[in-house]
Amino acid sequence: MSKVDVLLGLQWGDEGKGKIVDVLTPEYDVIARFQGGPNAGHTIEFGGIKHVLHIIPSGIFHEHKMNVIGNGVLVEPNIFRQEVLSLAAKGVDATKNLYLSKKAHLILPSHRMLDAANEHAKGSAKIGSTLKGIGPAYTDKIARSGLRIGDILESDFRERYELLKFQHLQTAHTLKFDLDSFRIDNMTLDEYEKQWLASLETLKEFQLINSEYFINKCLDEGKKVLAEGAQGSMLDIDFGSYPFVTSSNTVTAGVCSGLGVAPSRIGRVMGIIKAYCTRVGAGPFPTELFDETGRRLCELGHEYGATTGRPRRCGWIDIPALRYACMLDGVTDFFVTKSDVMNDFDEIKMCTGYEINGKVTDELPFEFNAVEIKPQFVTYKGWKQDLAGITKYEDLPQNLRDYIVAIEKVTGVNVKAVSISPDRKDVLFK
Ligand code: GDP
Ligand code: IMO
Ligand code: MG
């Protein structure tokens, strides 16, 4: 009997999860997404091709591997269809090895409208949502009024759809939302809905399954399953900087509810971290840099959202936040990405504690959003060397290896590999 290995982002998302999943896929039989939805943007690069996945697991480029969209995921049929088509254009037929849970909830066009209406109503307090309908769709799931993929096969689906949409329109009206000028991909809500309803037919071409049985059976048979996280632990609905979070459990616990596996069946937990930190959208970010160094990280790291194109806020690595994530997730090893972005830096800083009201702590305060946090930094020497062409971990510059050792020391977690470019081939295992 095997266990489910887990791969998660430990920061505020965009740590390079997609890339590492793609690299690890040859070791697994099944890659499964367990939470989130099209708010995710997972980039994979190889052979000069760059591909961004939103809903489909990052194992899809490996022909004989099974990919599962678990019950905890939200599926937006139009975005799903576009993703399937863009894979097909690259010669990947997703219908062959992609399975969808019948229990995964649907994002309706009116969920996306409500996302925009809610953000609009919040004014300057807005979350900076990706506007994919995540919050409203999970709200309906918890309120027990959502629609699931399996429901599209039922005869009363359209009736239930119309009722839910009607409720959403009423809410938008209450929020005084200007529906007339609202657009999704330059389409009115009605135009978008037409496409959305047509995209349900695409969903029906796929294998719609009870994914909890599927995954557990795979484990019983000794198959290897990798759960692919979306977003990052600091965006978790319970433990992130609420309300500046996403609406799902992005931590390891989300694997159990999002795939239907028991806690005792969780194996390794691989945490993906950037060598620095980024955040897109609003909310606290203690180590954020507003200076030239921050701008350099953004430019050299091409830190623009894979889903929305927004510039990501950049800063130094945040150890209190990382230790918190390791505690919540039970991380067994790290993958460090994007150290190459700092090749030219004279020095690199690491935040090891927060000074709050004159006291230094490494515990994230409940008032994370409200208190002034002065990050305490330790400085490391830069390596001032191009990493391109290095193929062995041992050949990485000493200063970079010292920085890695320092991360291991303050977190108590070993680094398994370091990624030094966006390309699949550039992951150096220790
Ligand atoms: P994800 O959401 O965690 O899958 O990450 P994203 O795809 O949103 O963002 C990570 C970005 O960094 C993508 O553009 C990747 O191609 C890129 N990337 C991943 N690993 C590395 C790395 O080691 N070095 C560099 N320079 N870029 C990387
Ligand atoms: P991946 O999987 C980075 C952020 C949004 C916003 C907040 C809520 O690519 O790492 P939502 O659309 O979920 O209501 O937005 O969460 N966010 C992400 N930031 N990477 C992501 O996914 C994200 N998904 C959501 O920017 O601040
Ligand atoms: Mg991303």
Provide a short characterization of the protein structure:
This protein is an alpha/beta fold and 430 residues long.
Mean pLDDT: 97
Structural class: alpha/beta
**How would you name the oligomeric state of the polypeptide chains in this document?**
single chain
Describe the global form: globular
Q: Going across the biggest sheet, name each strand in turn.
A: 9-7-5-2-10-1-11-15-19-20
Specify Rg, calculated over alpha carbons. 21 Å
Count of alpha/pi helices? 12
Poorly predicted residue ranges: none
Q: What proportion strand? A: 15-25%
Largest sheet entry: 10 strands, mixed
Helical residues, percent: 25-40%
Count of individual beta strands: 20
Attached small molecules? guanosine-5'-diphosphate, 6-O-phosphoryl inosine monophosphate, magnesium ion
Kindly report how far apart the N and C termini lie.
28 Å
Describe the secondary structure blueprint for this structure:
Layout: E1 4-9, H1 17-24, E2 30-33, E3 42-46, E4 49-53, E5 66-69, E6 74-75, H2 77-89, H3 94-97, E7 98-101, E8 105-106, H4 109-122, H5 134-142, H6 157-174, H7 189-204, E9 207-209, H8 211-220, E10 225-228, H9 253-259, E11 266-274, E12 277-279, H10 292-300, E13 313-315, E14 317-318, H11 319-329, E15 333-337, E16 347-356, E17 359-361, E18 374-381, H12 398-411, E19 414-419, E20 427-429
Parallel strand pairs: 1-10, 1-11, 2-5, 2-10, 5-7, 6-8, 7-9, 11-15, 14-16, 15-19
Antiparallel strand pairs: 3-4, 12-13, 16-17, 16-18, 19-20
Helix pairs in contact: 2-7, 4-5, 4-6
